[in-house]
Amino acid sequence: MRTRILTAAVAVLLLLAGCSSGGTRDDGRITLRFQSLAWQQESVAATRELVREWNAAHPDIRVEYVQGSWDSVHDQLLTSFEGGEAPDVIHDASDDLADFAYGGYLADLTGLLSERLRADIPRHSWETVTFGDGVYGVPFLQEPRVLIANAAWLRESGVRIPTPERPWSWAEFRQVTRRLSGDGKYGVAWPLKEPVSATLNLSLTTGGRLFHRDADGKVTVRFEAADQVVPRTVHDQVGTDRSAPASTLGSGGSDTLPGFFAGRYAMVPLGFSYRQQIAQQAPEGFEWQVLPAPAGAAGLTQGVSPQTLSIAEDSPHKKEAAAFLDFLLRPPNMVRLALGDWMLPTGTQALKDPALHTEEHGWATGTALAGHLRPAPAQSVRGYPEWKDKVATPALQEYYSGAIGLRELRERLEEDGNLVLARYQR
Predict the structure, then answer these.
(1) Whose CA is closest to 271, among 293, 296, 238, 295?
(2) What backbone torsions phi and psi does residue 374 show, to the nearest 5 degrees?
(3) What's the whole-model pTM score?
(4) Cα distance from N-terminal residue to C-terminal residue, the chain
(5) What is the distance between the alpha carbons of residues 310 and 308, in angstroms, rounded to a whole number?
(6) Helices and strands in the chain, H and E counts
(7) Rounded Cα–Cα distance for residues 356 and 368 (Å)
């Protein structure tokens, strides 16, 4: 906790240093502070270039680019909100917005956004940023979870290669990983350092929902049969089939890539954007391909928490900030941002761009999954960050490692989890 506080404090000092020129100058020129979380070289370059293009076309409304970090964004934003020093335009993720929206820190964009932008993004994407009667962000980038596979290994094994039209079921996926395993090699490696979002979002394929809201809006956790399919599959692959190594359960996605390239794992479930690292780091001649994640009773449906752009409630220039968002998210610009981040745009027009439908690097597979993406189960749940950190993460980590069984996992997610959520619903 002390480290997080210090990190947040440093982040705020850096933000304030970079934002000192905000507001309105004596000559009437407005400066909007835009905190971006773009971090990959291509995405930073694309975002900065779009800011330059805006500034060239709008000399009276200058946008100042401020670099933020995903590692500390929640604490940093909370501190800047409470200190009255938040940037005008805020880059974040939809699953981080609920407490900020309900806390009054973000502007309701309902009357600020253009009709073009509202119509271009599908309703289910807008649901990820809608809290109560207000809209508190614009969802603009999203990514499905996919299987990154050693193409030569799968081809030589003779297993059926799944497609978006005919994916593996979870049962077939387990069978395939058993078939691919042996002699110190594994059919799949699960990087589950952050196990909650992966588990919940993939559980939508089986009809899982975990969070149940009653007529009064109260949310309770129920870990039912449909919610158990994905965690049981992972647990059994590690502990029963030995088709997944226990050693990667505490790893991040990037940590699994050396073993993947070395031929130790046939597949790794990763976010779609990891393709950039793979394309850059794969050894010469290494063949890899993108496969859809397994499907269940609900088909290919997955939960996502899109990247978002919001406007601070304290911003004195909301109308100008909304105009900048409209520019930044025009279809051609949304494509540029998506290509820079190796993700998918939410906009229907941008998704039609030919650059997102090529077979190279699996773009076509990812785009075929875009229509199946839905709001993450925890999207509008107040108290989710605390539930995730204090209850779900340690419980799932212990279950996947074999330290606890399914019954205890259920008890902890439900009993301990509902005690946490109850504090936010009084």
Answers:
(1) 293
(2) -135, 165
(3) 0.89
(4) 26
(5) 6
(6) 20, 16
(7) 10
Predicted confidence band of residue 18 (pLDDT cuts 50, 70, 90): very low
Contact of 265 with 188, CB cutoff 8 Å: yes
Is residue 29's pLDDT more than 60?
yes
Q: What was the pLDDT predicted at 19?
A: 41
Listed residue (147, 351, 152, 168) closest to 253, CA to CA? 147
What confidence tens digit (pLDDT) does each residue in 393-416 have? 999 999 999 999 999 999 999 999
DSSP state of 412: I
pLDDT in tens, 86-124: 999 999 999 889 889 999 999 999 999 999 999 999 999
- What are the backbone dihedrals phi and psi of residue 106, each rounded to the nearest 5 degrees, phi first? -110, 145
Torsion sign across C-alpha atoms 76, 79, 85, 87: positive
Residue 346 to residue 328: CA distance in whole angstroms: 13
Q: What is the mean pLDDT of residues 199-204?
A: 97
Whole-number Cα distances in Å, 208 to 293, 295, 383, 414: 15, 12, 20, 14
Single-letter amino acid, residue 274: Y
Rounded to 5 degrees, what are φ and ψ at 157?
A: -75, -25
Helix axes 225-239, 393-401, angle to 10 degrees: 50
Per-residue tokens: 217: 């809006």
> How many beta carbons lie within 10 A of that of residue 153, not counting itself?
18
Nearest to 75 by CA among 67, 66, 83: 83
- Tokens linked to 296: 């269940």
Q: How do beta strands 89-93 and 30-36 pair? A: parallel
Token pair in block for residue 424:
């936010």
Tokens matching residue 96 = 């981080």
Rounded Cα gap, residues 260 and 255, in angstroms: 10
d(CA 401, CA 391): 16
Per-residue CA distances from 426 to 5, 101, 159, 421 (Å)? 27, 17, 52, 9
Q: Alpha-carbon distance 331 to 23, whole Å?
A: 29
